[in-house]
Amino acid sequence: MNAFLETFFKPNLIAQYWPDILKGIVVTIEIAFAVVVCGLLLGLLLAVLRSFRITPINALIVVFVDMFRALPPLVIVLIVYFGLPNVGISIPSFAVLWLVLTLVLAAFAEEIFWAGILSVPKGQWDAGRSTGFAYLGTLAWIVLPQAIRLTVPPITNRTVAITKNTALGMVIGVPEILSQATSAQSFSGNATPLMLGALAYVILFIPVVALGRFLETRFAWRRS
Amino acid sequence: MDALIQQFFNLDIMSRALPLVLHGLWQTVVLCLIVIPLGLAGGLLFALVSLSRSRAIRYVMIVAIDFFRAVPPLVLLIFVYSGLPFAGIRLSPLTAVALAFFLNTSSYYGEIYRAGIESVGRGQWDAARSTGLNAFHTLASVILPQAVRNVLPDLVSNTVEVVKLTSIASVVALPELLYSADMARSITFNASPIVLAAAIYLVMLWPVVRLISRLERRIAS
Amino acid sequence: MSILPAPILSIAGLRKSFGPTEVLRGIDLAVAPQELVFIIGPSGSGKSTLLRCCNRLEEPTAGVITLGGVDLMARSTDINAMRRKIGMVFQSFNLYPHMTALGNVTLALRKVVGKSRSDAEQLGMAALERVGLSAKAKSYPSELSGGQQQRVAIARALALEPSVMLFDEPTSALDPELVGSVLAVMRELKAAGMTMLVVSHEMRFARDAADRVIFMDHGMIVEQGRPERIFAAPQETRTKAFIAELTR
Lengths: 224, 221, 248
Hints:
The complex is a heterotrimer. By secondary structure, chain A is an all-alpha fold. Chain A has a single domain (2-218), classed as MetI-like (MetI-like fold). Chain A has helices at residues 2-8, 11-51, 55-70, 73-86, 93-119, 122-130, 135-163, 177-188, 192-218. In chain A, α6 packs across α7 and α7 runs antiparallel to α9. Chain B is mostly helical. Chain B has a single domain (13-220), classed as MetI-like (MetI-like fold), CATH 1.10.3720. The N and C termini of chain B lie far apart (44 Å). In chain C, α3 packs across α4 and α5 runs parallel beside α6 (176-191). In chain C, the strands form two sheets. A six-stranded mixed β-sheet of chain C has the order 6-7-8-3-9-10, with helices on both faces. In chain C, strands 2-1-4-5 form a four-stranded antiparallel β-sheet, with helices on one face. The chains are: A mainly alpha, B mainly alpha, C alpha/beta. At the A-B interface, α1, α3, α4, α5 and α7 of A face α1, α3, α4, α7 and α8 of B.
């Protein structure tokens, strides 16, 4: 038992490294927040755009969405991180991480929002148009509010899954939690910082996962 | 424009990297053949335990599942691979990946199975039990067939996620597809090998992703 | 004095609470072999719960239930084996949607009784024949009407050769024109000598076929007797009010 505590919970190491982990937490939260806001907005925008049913644009949207849902995020991160500097575009690593994760979330979110828009009964469109709303008005005031309500559980699930990918930042040197934890681990020759890092993630994400569980029971996404 | 093609779509470099990348693809396939069945079985186990009569057992299981869904898979993997040796447990990259994946994917699959089981109406349990079928036969013959049918799109969707997730094994130097491609990149200073790997992922997964979209839309309507 | 046959199903002091709510407050009931007992009462009176306690789909909070002399509540009793002797038919049929009618009827025969597939199918077809649906053996529940589904459900219970059959509002979920086919099967069962406990509001059926009508309210048996007497001349005020409401 003592050996276990020595390996994973050494007090002086906890005291020494928790500020670094804290710095990592801040970075993780900042990037996650930015990804969620931008990703969901972009996804919603793309879904709305798709509802105009302009075929060439829709084709582009579908290609984009399918690609970013089929590719592992780490693959895209490495392509952007290593490739862009060689063609003269240099972006800081945290921006690469933010950009890639935003696009991935946007792709998943678009599909979910689109399914939501499609599942609002046609009668709602009729009602809106017949009371004088133009297309955008009907969409904004009548259809989207209903569509978004339907999509809360899958969106929450997907958002949590994608924000956890901020850990991939470790591979390209973004100073988020896992980076800090693994550097500290190599410096100190002890697994305590790694344990701290894992706990930091747990503390950050368990409330979100629990919230997701709660939302799922509240807004059960109707399966037959 | 030319520079873009040179950097990302350099066919010459891609063809030189192809053997290495294909070897990595094979490793990825093997890895998938290990972790997907493990996850599917583990998930069923997790789901059945979380339906236990004992409230204590249910609680522990749900906490465990939420824990493994909250920890990023990469963190879990690094912990198992780099952290456990400090406690005297040294695992090969493959074993570490298999263990980390088992814990993570079983939690996700488990939640899907659980939702499926709960979506089967109570009446089915009543009917089966009232004819004398015990819990095992009721689950096996009546409940699970219906449960799996109800959540099949989610199971397929999660399986796609697992295939994509294998790419993080590259971080612990398991020579799968991404690792091999990255190795070629570092030798050639050119991103084309990784684009090649991306193309391979697309060939494998794009059709499935399309299928899932269609299935999800059919269920939603 | 005639010697009464030993009751086939015997309930004494049955109580059932769901949390703080007591749904059954002490039920005593003895059902004679081949008797058709018809149970009526307002919703919430505990009729369904009573039925579901008989095969322990609900666990009684207190009381003794005996089937053919075997104590159902005893630890040593194999409840799964006893459940085969009590057939249950549900309001919502509860057929297995992923199996054919024959599959539904033979599942327990194959898995629990251990019959071979061909033996089970023979018995299953015989049961389907009894309810008039042998032609639909290969059909799936989604291809059958409500009345047909309920008759398959009856066959499913019959195939196990029960000593008692429990019917929980068997026709309440059916369109009126399909009710007759199910009641006809129930009449045939009665004529063949099956012991039956029926919760329903099909009064005409009660008048024609029931040996005893029981009126339940608030978890207790208020009054019981021959159908002619209960329907024509109920004694208790609550019974009178309920019957009046029904026949309005």
